[in-house]
């Protein structure tokens, strides 16, 4: 007898089924993975042991009995960190722990969005944000960026145009500090202009600060949340980029009017307690010394990546050095179809993010790539870029062979 | 200037906002919390240390690079455990780790349900299942239970009635092994009858086995999944009840046709890796000895609870001793309004689950309570039941004062 067929039971609108997992590409420039050498294993061991001795019995109670906003010592650490680093004034009661900042995206979207709504986003953007909005049937209006992040002239025009059509966007989503994928940092003056436009149009700001710890010099402008005077900013962050992505711990700072709805929507009986306990114990003692060390390693890998791109692609690869983070946004010549390049490169063992998946404007991003440099080794970066250049040459005739070709590849 | 007002931006259909967390009740008989003395802290310390030394660097990669189905050693442990305990034949490739069995509920519902659909459930049921279905706009047809779980005569009649109205339910949801809240265990003969009805009507079975490790004698019938020959059963489970609820780790065993959709819907970048690592390391060495010890402690608390109910309520409290688990389903006299009792008891420091929140039939469950006994101490159980009886007497005149009153309460 045949297997039970579920297909007549499936509702409309499901995403395409996943393929079987085939492992990571040999040269992986995708995903927010980090440097294995950057995981502070010894300090994690000590932190796990200390917190289990002290509070392990609490694991018998959902959320350790600290309530649906999450493990209180971690929220206390964050309140202090956000004050010091981002000038955000908040207490542990204003913070809600979530299972990675992706759950924050989901909860905020559930709390604010309905099918047919409109939101404003940066044109080149995090794929996970764009795919979520598409699945929800929400229109994402993309605002172009320059070297200082989202362009305020374009935002003002978009808001005015929507207003003329009687459309009030539900939020303005921005990654102002190390923007994904452009790596730009929005200066404080522009943040203030963004707030002015937000208030003028009654549109809240959704500030995604998940890369903000990773600026090269450790400096960052004050968070938009810190500059807002009327509680119109929802701020989210994560430990994925600054500590370890496989730990699924993010957070939200939001006005209670909104957080109380998000808490009602968060029906998961709490985010993982052990990961919150480990992070609180570890970060309280070591976060301040860990991050600069991690960032030094990331910056060295970025240099290797940019050197490899210059050597292999020459002038065919254009990019601006980001101010921090784990990715580089690269423009190739117009004849390069990034979607096709990504497919061909993957066959050769090199995984890249094609621009059209990271932008509201697939034409603008048609020849662009996002290359993540944190996870591969320096040698893998060099080898992977060499293979990518060779694939690109075979598929699109660029880069042409030239004197700046990396001889180590031969 | 006033605070930003989000209310004009909120979509229809949101749940009521959460109230501020006020801590657990002094005498808490709610929630699936477990016994703090049952957390194997020393073995957790050893397991955390061993797995961090060996694989801690992997935390730099989402999901440790084990793919979206989760940490492979934990799936391997589960495949072997499910074979041995539940006679389920599956491999690690058939198992998907999730963030607690609640995420399994959400993913299965997202994969199968649309507004207006119908599903079949046990009449007295897990509140989280019923509230999820209500929010999705799905009709839950409740089937009465007897001492052997869901009644097959009632199920057959319900299926026939729905068929006559041309309604094909999307699934039959059952907790066959230590049913929540009745504590019943469905015998194998009835499982086979359930499968026969499922196949006759082309309705898959959704088997929630999250309490199945906690039978008093360690014995359990084969899982329905194990008895099915055509892949019509979705099986879920959890470590929350057998190890620790604050660790958010559950799992799904499902045919690939469905699992591939659930994986596409699981856009959380993986469930927490450290909790999966700890559990794999711990369970492989200790699960078999841990569970019987945990269960002995639970059974002793059940005895305390039943003794306290007999002493305080006398014949006013009716219940059948469950075959395992962490809760007791209690019937009080008809004049007791369980919703009102729960409110009054909470003011006196005693939290209970009122029956109407745990049933598709609020009238049937109007005088019923679910009392969880795993978390409070023996003394707290005795004191809490005494207070509950006193509140019930004040509110409803039952239990009447009688010779079996517990003098220690005075």
Helices and strands, with pairings:
Two copies of one chain form a homodimer.
Chain A: E1 27-28, H1 41-55, H2 72-86, E2 95-98, H3 100-112, E3 118-122, H4 127-136, E4 139-143, E5 145-146, E6 149-150, H5 152-164, E7 172-174, H6 188-201, E8 205-208, H7 224-227, E9 233-238, E10 250-253, H8 256-265, H9 273-313, E11 327-331, H10 338-347, E12 350-351, E13 353-354, E14 368-372, H11 378-396
Parallel strand pairs in A: 1-12, 3-4, 3-7, 7-8, 8-9
Antiparallel strand pairs in A: 2-10, 5-6, 9-10, 11-14, 13-14
Structure description:
- Two copies of one chain form a homodimer.
- Chain A is α/β, with parallel strands linked by helices.
- Chain A has helices spanning 41-55, 72-86, 100-112, 127-136, 152-164, 188-201, 224-227, 256-265, 273-313, 338-347, 378-396; strands at 27-28, 95-98, 118-122, 139-143, 145-146, 149-150, 172-174, 205-208, 233-238, 250-253, 327-331, 350-351, 353-354, 368-372.
- In chain A, the strands form four sheets. A seven-stranded mixed β-sheet of chain A has the order 2-10-9-8-7-3-4, with helices on both faces. Chain A has a three-stranded antiparallel β-sheet with strand order 11-14-13. In chain A, strands 1-12 form a two-stranded parallel ribbon.
- In chain A, helix 1 packs antiparallel against helix 9 (273-313), helix 3 (100-112) packs parallel to helix 4 and helix 9 (273-313) packs across helix 11 (378-396).
- Chain A is globular, with a radius of gyration of 22 Å.
- The interface between A and B is large, with 99 and 99 residues.
């Amino acid at each position: 007898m045949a297997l039970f067929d579920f297909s007549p039971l499936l509702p409309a609108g499901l995403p395409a089924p996943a393929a079987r997992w085939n492992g990571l590409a040999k040269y992986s420039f995708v995903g927010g993975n980090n440097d294995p050498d950057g995981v502070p294993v010894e300090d994690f061991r000590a932190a796990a042991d200390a917190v289990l001795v002290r509070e392990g019995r609490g694991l018998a109670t959902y959320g350790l009995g600290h309530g649906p906003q999450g493990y209180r010592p971690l929220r206390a650490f964050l309140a202090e960190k956000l004050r010091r680093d981002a000038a955000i004034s908040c207490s542990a009661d204003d913070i809600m722990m979530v299972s990675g900042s992706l759950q924050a995206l989901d909860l905020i979207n559930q709390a604010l969005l309905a099918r047919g709504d409109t939101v404003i986003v940066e044109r080149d953007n995090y794929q996970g944000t764009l795919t979520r909005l598409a699945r929800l049937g929400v229109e994402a209006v993309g605002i172009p960026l320059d070297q200082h992040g989202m362009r305020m002239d374009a935002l003002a025009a978009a808001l005015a145009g929507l207003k003329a059509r009687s459309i009030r966007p539900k939020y303005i989503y921005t990654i102002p500090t190390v923007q994904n994928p452009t790596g730009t940092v929005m200066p404080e003056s522009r943040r203030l202009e963004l707030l002015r436009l937000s208030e003028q149009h009654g549109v809240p700001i959704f500030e995604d600060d998940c890369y903000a710890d990773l600026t090269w010099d450790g400096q960052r402008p004050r968070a938009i949340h810190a500059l807002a005077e009327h509680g119109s900013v929802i701020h989210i962050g994560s430990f994925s980029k600054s500590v370890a992505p496989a730990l699924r711990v993010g957070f939200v700072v939001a006005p209670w009017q909104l957080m109380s709805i998000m808490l009602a929507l968060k029906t998961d009986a709490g985010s993982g307690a052990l990961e919150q306990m480990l992070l609180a114990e570890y970060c309280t003692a070591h976060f301040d010394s860990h991050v600069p060390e991690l960032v030094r390693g990331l910056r060295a890998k970025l240099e290797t990546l940019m050197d490899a791109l210059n050597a292999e692609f020459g002038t065919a690869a254009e990019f601006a050095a980001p101010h921090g983070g784990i990715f580089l946004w690269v423009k190739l010549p117009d004849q390069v179809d990034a979607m096709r390049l990504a497919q061909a490169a993957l066959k050769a063992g090199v995984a890249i993010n094609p621009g059209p998946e990271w932008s509201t404007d697939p034409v603008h991003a048609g020849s662009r790539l996002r290359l993540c440099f944190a996870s591969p080794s320096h040698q893998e970066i060099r080898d992977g870029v060499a293979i990518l250049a060779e694939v690109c040459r075979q598929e699109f005739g660029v880069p042409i062979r030239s004197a700046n070709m990396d001889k180590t590849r031969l």
